[in-house]
Every structure is written in C-alpha cells, then in structure tokens.
Amino acid sequence: MEPRPYLIRQLSPGGPPVDRTGIRTAADGDLPAMAEVLAEAYRGTVDDEGEDAAAALRELRSTAAGAYGPALRQAWLVHEEDGRLTAAVLCTRWQGRPFVAQAITHPRDQRRGLSTRLLGTAAEVLAAAGETQLSLVVTRRNPAHALYRRLGFVEAPWPVR
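RESULT FIELD:
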C-alpha cells in the first residue's frame, strides 16, 4: 500500500483574508454533485480504487454520518461557478483535532487555486472557532501532497488513540 503520511497545519486567527468568491457552506443537497466531482477527481490517480459516482456518494454519506469523526459542518465548503460545483473541502473531528476528510477538485478545474482557497477558508473558519490545528492524510505520490506542504502542512507522527 502507498504510504500516506499524517500532516498537520497550525492555525491562527487574523491572517490575510482568503478570497471567498464562489465559496459557500455545503448543504446535504450538495452530496450528489460532490460525489460526481469526487469520482472524477480520483479517476486514474494513485488513489483510484475504481469508485463510480454511486460509490463516491456512499463514501460522502458515510463521512457525513461520522465515519471520520463528527462532521464540522461549518468547515464543509463548496466552490461553485456558473451553476456547477467545482470543488469541495469536508472537515471532521478525528483524533481530537479538525481533519480534512475530503479535499476534491474536478479535473477540469484543477490548478486554479480552488483547493488553496477552500482550505484557506476552512482554516479561517476553524481558527475563528478557537481551533489551533488542522490535519489530513494524503498519499505521498498524490500531487496534492506538494500543495499541502506549500500551504504549511508538515508531517507529524500518527496520533495514538
């Protein structure tokens, strides 16, 4: 299995504001559109396990139900453009801290800074709520690994239960 390091980013309120154009809090009704983006985002990548949109929707519903810890719904964010959902970030509380359970961008919308803006918005929202760290797990060969490092995430030891 491909190594998946645990990464943590320190959060602090009062940083430069993030451009939130097109970003809003996700609603349950967004799950089917998010599932389409999730299935497309993973297709043909190092993390592709053959999921279709139906399997992706089951995964998102599982996430909403607490599979990766309680959902932090204030940090469930989507980006829309021209009436189309392009990207999403879903945070939960796992191992005692906020955790990025999903960060997805449709392939045709990648490399436009959407994940950077969504993660920045999630960090702002969580820091304003008093959170001090944000964590995630990512496959080392996934291009997002480099993005997360640029955004200030650093490798840390896996939490002990």
